[in-house]
Structures
1.
Amino acid sequence: MTKIGLYLDGEPAGGALQYDITMMHAFAALREWGYEIVIGCGSDRWIEYFPNWDPAFIRMTPSRVARVLSKAWRTARLPMQIWRAITPHFDTPARAMLQQKCDLWVFSSSAAWSFQTPVRSLVTVHDLMHRYERRFPEAGGEYAYREALFSSLCRWATGVLVDSEMGRQHVAESYGTALDKIHALPYIAPARTFNPSAPADFEQRCPLPAKFVFYPAQFWAHKNHARLVEAIAMLRERGLSDIQLVLVGGKQNGYATVQQWVDSLNLRQHVHFLGYVLDEYMAEIYRRARAMIMPTFFGPTNIPPLEAAAVGCPMALSGIYGMPEQMGDAAVFFDPNSTESMADAIGRLWVDDALCADLAAKGRAKHAAWNQVQFNLRLKEIVQKLI
């Protein structure tokens, strides 16, 4: 029987968790198809995300010393061949992976153990924005570390998973990786999207205007909140006095700066900050929104457009990287560098009912054509090629 391992790094948290959950469901399908499955995880908290089946769990928590040494080794660009030879003697995850004798280990994140351990590996590279959007501190701040990580990953992995054809191009041109080694496995809308009804306390927790556009994003500089706020001000000047914007995201990073910008443009009655919103409330916000707006500078693709499509929420997106590939004719696209272009897109969605209805229908059709079932089948296809 073919044996496949899934490695879940660190603690379950952050935006990557939604992708991890998608991968867990795919592994449940692999087991149904006759594969022997083992789950390696860095925390016992991962177990709660497997409520409907009981795979074999192997705790693989590296020591702090091993983490520090491995990061130093990569940053110093010391020979990885030597590290791969010695790491099973002192590193817990490496030793545990080898003992399982899996035909392939799948890494849902760009974990260093994928190449520091001499196993066959299929490793996810979510993006290389540290190269393509280095102007933002959250992208370029650890450039040397990320280069060492991704270059080693792409060299030693048996296969590399990316989110799109644009992602394949980025990996190939950045590290000289052969295209036949890079496999596109597009994201799907996470499970949180499909809550059938709003929580009982939704109105209290999420006070919303009757009509609004919605941007779900943390307040990082690359999320481009400042230009979005300027676009809302521009639309008011054009006569859309009823325009309303709802923002969600924790009160850190650039949160205070965006609030100050809202105040300086006299938009306090038009821009609403909900703060951090729990997953179970998000689907209802999408359902009630006139449209979802995403002016981000990062890609290649993103999860929020898939969430919007799944519930029939029209959307306007940055027309860069792999986002036109991701959503095609199910979205309006704009130049994220241009306030005017952004305002034009938002304005169209605000006033054109027929356009919104058309985009909602096309979004639902896209979701029907690519969801968890298709994701599972595509992963199975890639796994079969590699083993």
2.
Amino acid sequence: MKEKILAMLRENERGYVSGEEISERLGISRTAVWKHISELRRRGYVVEASTRKGYRIISSPDILYPWEVRPLLKTKIFGKKLVHFTVVDSTNTEAKELAEKGVGEGTVVIAEEQRKGRGRLGRGWHSPKGGIWMSLILRPKIQPHRAMGTTLLSAAAVCEAVMKVTGLGISVKWPNDLLIEGKKVCGILTEMKAETDMVQYIIQGVGLNVNLDEKDLGKISETATSLKLMLGRPVDRKVLLSEILYSMENMYHAYLRGDFHEVMKKWKKWNSTLGKHLTLKQGDREYYGLAVDVTPEGGLILEAPSGERKTFYSGEVTVEK
């Protein structure tokens, strides 16, 4: 009902809609209308009321409510079911619980704030208000060794969406870091449940610093940034989320069709790793070489000074400056 009342108010954003008209069109009492308006105000909407004129919406909150995001979606599946939290420990954890219960592919879990956001290798992910902290449930019929490819397509999709919405130059460092002017702005966390020969589900986590200020970044401000800081103004998170899901869905379906070339063409367009000399660290071991290519499974091919080539599917990368 909130969505219908909002739609009516937005039809007449410059004027008023009477309580009587809302009541008649929606088949609810005037008292029910007032209760729903009060609920919208509680959720952050500024709604002006006039005894003679009715109600008029003044402003909407910067909150990723499903009923705010849904009208902007251009996807067929991704985000059509959107589970929203104000505060949560981790969207990936919530998404895994839903996936275990059989929730369908394309379901998105999103939070305004995470208390225990997670990055790769068990690291924490700083997730205050103002970002896009989301997890997408995927159920691809692929073998487990192909799962890392979804990390690459998600990184490329976020880059594509950010560029489209903000015009900012952005790059992806293998396997999952998105950078603007050398500072981290986004991370991708892929988690999976699989049998020996088939993936049951993949949770694709995206943590994107959108409207964070320097005080929000705190200690990590030397190595991290946000779209707002780089752009000099806030970004409409609802529009950006819609574009991210649209790009992700398109690339995901291309990937499932076996069109990895198309996915990698886009990933390579944004990448800042290939053609660079780098050090790749796995545990206590370090490997040095030239990043020459990425495999269809998402593995990084590193050529050592000896000419020997080795493929890596995980590791911490430091690009030589």
3.
Amino acid sequence: MTLRSNIIRAGFDALYFSGAHYLLRPILAGVGVILMLHHVRPARSDPFQPNRHLEVTPEFLRTTLDHVRELGLDIIGVDEMHRRMAAREFSRRFVCFTFDDGYRDNRDFALPVMREHDAPFTVYAAGDFVDGRGQFWWLALEQLVAKAEVIDAPIGDGVRLDAGSPAAKQAAFDRLHPWLRAMPSDEAMMDALRTLGAPHGLSADAAGRDLCMPWDELRDFAADPLVTIGAHTLSHCTLAKASRAVAAHEMAASRKRIEDALQRPVRHFAYPYGDKIAATAREFTLARELGFSTAVTTRPGMLFAENASHLTALPRISLNGHFQDRRFLSVLTSGAATAIWKGFRRVDAA
């Protein structure tokens, strides 16, 4: 676990064991919450798992569902969330479960658990991922660091990164990940990854391509009454780094691609990466102009009545694989942790 994860864990524990999260819940929990997940699958024993934050076990998903039921939250789909937000109907608090990217494990492991609770959920699918030609650069980076003993990276005047142990691999990954994300374009990022992988015989373009449901599987999956499919761009690009025309095309064409394949309307959108680097006020305006009912970010936060005026800039709470503990759920659903993180701002739509 990284230093950052350990600091966050310490903060969660402080809120939990002090009881502060319980006292603050009535003030900070808002009208509802959108939970964000990616993978749901059994735990792995690999000592090096730098993307572990993107996966939870079926058992923890079940624990989460039990927890929100105990809180008395309504588990609703995104269409119903949109209706309540637009109508400002806040008599009952609610939770929406959302899954990004369209992984097969959402069908194989998440769907059976959601069925146990008769819990609707949304999966945001990226067209290129469904087509089997997406670029999972974060997985390519994981594979590179896992295989390498030493990595020569053109950072500054050039650095040689030790990757000879699990701890060294984590440190190397933590150095390379933000460097790649800071690239001026997704194309530049993939070019850099190809350069890094070439000496180790790795193809940055091939990583992860069997992880997502293809169209025939997605079509069957979407037929389940609990499932809503939303759009997640065509290429899973960093929209804020693209021109306005390209960003608009990525958003609109991804919706059309899904609608044509599934023969059903697509009203909801998720911004790839979804943080302030990837989704800005321009993208929020684009989503509204393109007619999406809602669009979700990865900016942390609960939903408040004020969010009804910013339906294409909705925050979510990540179910992070590093924090699969019921007491952390209590802190997260209280709103205390994200309120402190955001300086007690209720809306973050700039």
